[in-house]
Amino acid sequence: MEFKEKLLASHLAFEERIDFSDPVHQTRLESLKTFEEKGFPSRKDEAWKYTSLNAVVRQDYALFPKKETTIQLKKVKKYFLYEIDTYKVVFIDGVYSPFLSDTTHDGLDVCLMSAALSKAKYRKLIDTYFNKITDKQDSLTALNTSYTQEGAYVYIPKSVVAEKPIEIIHFSTGKEKALWLQPRNLIVIDQNAQVQILERHQSLKEHVVVTNSVTEIYAHQDAFVDYYKIQNDLSTASLIDNTYISQEKNSNVRVHTFSLGGKLIRNNLNFYLKGEHCNSTLKGVTLLEDQQHVDHYTLVDHASPNCESHQDYKGVFSEGSKGVFNGKILVDQIAQKTNAFQQNNNILLDDKATVNTKPQLEIFADDVKCSHGCTVGQLDEDALFYLRSRGIPKKEAKALMTYAFANNVLESVELPILKKRINKLIAKKLGVNLGFDL
Amino acid sequence: MLTIENLHAQVEGKQILNGIDLDVKAGEVHAIMGPNGSGKSTLSSVIAGHQDYEVNEGTMLLEGEDLSELAPEERAHKGIFLSFQYPVEIPGVSVTNFIKTAINASRKAKGLEDMAANEMLKKIREKSSLLGIDSRFLSRSLNQGFSGGEKKRNEIFQLAMLEPKLSILDETDSGLDIDALKIVANGVNKLRSKDNAIIVITHYQRLLEYIVPDFVHVLFDGKIVKSGNKDLAIELEEKGYDWIKEMA
Q1: Which of A146, B134, B171, B184 is the most exposed place for a label (fewest CB within 10 A)?
Q2: Residue of chain A nearest B139, judged by CA positions
Q3: Minimal Cα distance from B141: which residue of A?
Q4: How would you list the strands of the sheet with B223-228, edge to edge?
């Protein structure tokens, strides 16, 4: 049986395992229908021209995780921001791990999607927000929606500043030979509230795992959301991340994506600016080697006047790795005084790596400032010579230049401990120890 | 210290140096002058080991050791320093962190431990005050947004920190106003000793009023066509380079 058929056939069994009466049952069925009609995207779809899922969907996966697996904290501690106090929502092979988690209902909600779906007190929120800003025609999002059950649920009430960052971490253990995960996150930041969130997917040993994740983020008026995606998984793990962000008046949402490892990563990052004076930041550092493949597919929809968006993606590729950047900026007719900026700069460290970069601007308003720029090049030989002439060996010199190249993105990370961690990850990836924190 | 014999070099198939002979001894300051395109900057790049330049004849020895097969960083470890005409900007890496990395890379190559933090700080303070550099400057990203004068001063600061045997100052005077020029020249003079040597590459005589050379060489068409003492620089300033071209 093809995997698509399996997904369709298994749905009844899936819903039998959970509560049929929950508020999203109907949405699940509709979404399954969409997936049935559309199937997995192929390279014939313009949006998937440079990224093929063929190899991914050709094989079979376990869909229903076994009972909870426990892992020792000391074995996974390094994947957390253990130096500081954080809220944690942790899943092991798709199943919630109360032992590793640190949730709360004290003044804000940091808990589980399954709880939000099953408890009456969350009903109104689910009705208001669940699946409201997703792209209903996107087959992978529809697939996730049809299997919605578990993930993180975050609600920050009006004027509350979450005093600790929230870590959403998915571990996979390799107990299943091949595992298909579909976490679903719902994050609602009410008026004037603030939060920092970090999301990570991590295999603990080499095994095939594909995560098709959907996250909806609602930033109300004057809200501030600082979101970090750490993608540094093993070379057997693939991730399709579908993130939808709705912004109301004066809100500020920043998403940083650090793609440092994994087999195939597709980031569908969608911003909808629905109120005036929104500020949106999309930044990313991609640092790949071997046969890794990362595709950033962004959409910023300026649907209101006087908003500002900044995109800055830096990529460094070597040894047969592939990078794709497709950045679409849509400026609606009413969105006068829009400021929209987009940058995508890439460095190819050897001639085996490839990059495809494509800006897409669709502007229907006349009083706007939009700019985009993309470059693909090599490390500057003269700069390299400058560093080496100071006694810095070639490898370290390349690393310093890579840092310098990615610096625009790194410098806007507002969690110092995270910045330090990312610096270390990058240094490790480049095989250098620079002896100082950048 | 540096002995260059019959040096020929080319870049991208174009022959630039056509047989240079130069003997620089410890304690000496040599000036190399010449019109644009005569090969001055090529000579400095070749000595420092830029990979785009290919030596196709002749030898370069530093204290008797052949340089030609050494990578740029290895030449730096042996004590060669090139002050760049156009220093490169490295955003996100502070002047302090950069110089620490450079110093410790050289130490590592010599089998030494990293320099102790307090020793490093002391040295940074000492050398920066020599060049009138304040601590705010040291925490800025290397060369990023620096004025021409700040870039050159930073080059000489690195020179002071790395304490090379042979320093090559490539057009260090270009883009400097007279005050900045004096500070930079004054810094260089304080670093002169009987154990190190300096090659000053310049188009104009101006810098040589402040860093007084023991020898002046005139480069034309990839060859040294005339050598003399500091008076030669003054003569060149008066007569211009056409005189040399006619002679060649």
Answers
A1: B134
A2: A438
A3: A404
A4: B80-83, B166-170, B197-202, B29-33, B215-220, B223-228
| Phi, psi for A222 (deg, rounded to 5) | 65, 10
ipTM computed for the complex: 0.94
The distance of B189 to chain A (nearest Cα, Å) reads 21
Residue with tokens 């700080």: B121
Residue A416, token pair as written in the block: 């110092």
Contact (CB<8Å) B48/A389: yes
Q: Which of B77, B89, B93 sits opposite A391 (nearest CB)?
A: B77
Strand partners, A266: A240, A295
User: What's the token pair of residue B102?
Assistant: 């450079």
Paired tokens of A292: 């890794």
Indicate the number of domains in chain B: 1
Q: Do A381 and B93 touch (CB under 8 A)?
A: no
pLDDT tens digits, one per residue of B202-248 = 988 888 999 999 999 999 999 999 999 999 988 888 888 888 777 76
- Domain hosting B47: range is 2-247
First-to-last CA distance in chain A?
A: 51
Burial class of B64 by CB neighbour count within 10 A (0 to 12, 13 to 18, 19+): exposed
Interchain contact, A392 vs B97, CB within 8 Å: no
Q: What is the pLDDT of residues B171-192, one digit of tens each?
A: 888 888 888 888 889 989 999 9
CA distance B245 to chain A (A): 31
Q: How far apart are CA B58 and CA B60, in angstroms?
A: 7
Give the closest of B92, B105, B141 to A391, CB-based.
B105
pTM recorded for the entire structure: 0.89
Here the CATH number for the domain that contains residue B161 is: 3.40.50.300
